[in-house]
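Q: Could you predict the 3D structure of ATP synthase subunit g, mitochondrial?
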Amino acid sequence: MASKLVQLQAKAAQASQLVAKHGGAYHKQLLEQNKQYIQEPPTVEKCNLLSKQLFYTRLASFPGRYESFWKELDYVKHLWKNRQELKVEDAGIAALFGLELFAWFCAGEIVGRGFTITGYSV
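A: Sure. Here are the predicted structure tokens for ATP synthase subunit g, mitochondrial:
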């Protein structure tokens, strides 16, 4: 156990040396590549302004999303009314969609339990 701790410490020291040596250059390169996204002047006030713009822009998108939701629901109601005319391809797509929803639900449950399958943490 002690030898594994020493190995881990050595690897951590090696990684920190690598970051100390190349981290600054990587940071400069990253900023240079993405300078079109940087707002000038970089102040707290500018960050607050951008935060508010993002919030209210997302808030303004709700009516469009609401309308799209009701259109989709009307389409599903129409398909349900005419389910006798439903093609195999449409039924397959619906089944795959339902399976995907179930898989995301299961994944969310696993994440919510702290990545344990049975619910018991070790």
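Q: Anything worth pointing out?
A: The chain has a mean pLDDT of 88.
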